[in-house]
Design a protein that fits this description.
The chain is an alpha+beta fold and about 180 residues long. The chain contains 7 helices and 7 strands. A 7-stranded mixed sheet has the order 1-2-3-4-5-7-6, sandwiched between helices. The longest helix is centred in the N-terminal third of the chain and has 11 residues. The termini are far apart.
């Protein structure tokens, strides 16, 4: 593990994130190659073919963490959920109409948060999370996390998230994930 390093976080809009896509891809590829994800180079390439479209979503925002030498060490991104979001439809059990009500300002959907192995355990994920959410104005945050991942759900629970159900991402053939919600108010 490298010595503790000065880590900077840079908030970005969609256009800036597209310019920095290679840095996001590097972090993503390393973090999600591990179990339980086991994403291959083809999986990563497929995910990042869609990245430019993702960055154009309503109120998209991203954060990139770099060490003092400029090397990408972590990333996070997401967007506010619009009234027609499919996020609630992916839950295996329905939730109340009040819970699923969206207006484009109520819920921030955390799509990805990852830190490269050598920089874990240094508070980078928490800084990414805080920087990403700063100024969103959202009442809450919704995310999906693989239940076989040990570190991620533990971190999310320690930050105040609670499991609200299970989601099958991408429809019937998709992996089952835990849906977690953080109330910001």
């Amino acid at each position: 593990m490298p010595q503790r390093d000065t880590i900077s976080t840079t908030p970005m809009d969609g256009a800036a994130a597209v310019i920095a896509a290679d840095a996001f891809k590097l972090v993503y590829a390393e973090a999600f190659a591990e179990p339980p994800y086991r994403e291959t180079a083809d999986d990563v390439a497929a995910a990042f073919r869609h990245f430019p479209a993702v960055t154009r979503r309503l109120a998209f925002r991203a954060v990139l963490a770099r060490n003092s030498e400029g090397e990408p060490v972590g990333m996070a991104y997401g967007c506010l959920l619009g009234p027609n979001t499919v996020w609630w439809d992916e839950l295996t059990e329905p939730v109340s109409d009040d819970m699923r009500r969206e207006n484009g300002h109520r819920t921030f959907g955390l799509m990805e948060l990852a830190v490269r192995v050598a920089w874990r355990g240094q508070g980078v994920a928490r800084r990414l999370h805080e920087t990403l959410l700063d100024g969103t104005g959202a009442e809450r945050v919704l995310l999906n996390v693989h239940p076989a991942s040990e570190a991620a759900p533990t971190a999310y629970r320690s930050w105040g998230y609670r499991k609200i159900g299970e989601a099958r991402l991408g429809g019937e053939g998709g992996d089952l994930h835990d849906a977690m919600l953080l109330d910001l108010g």
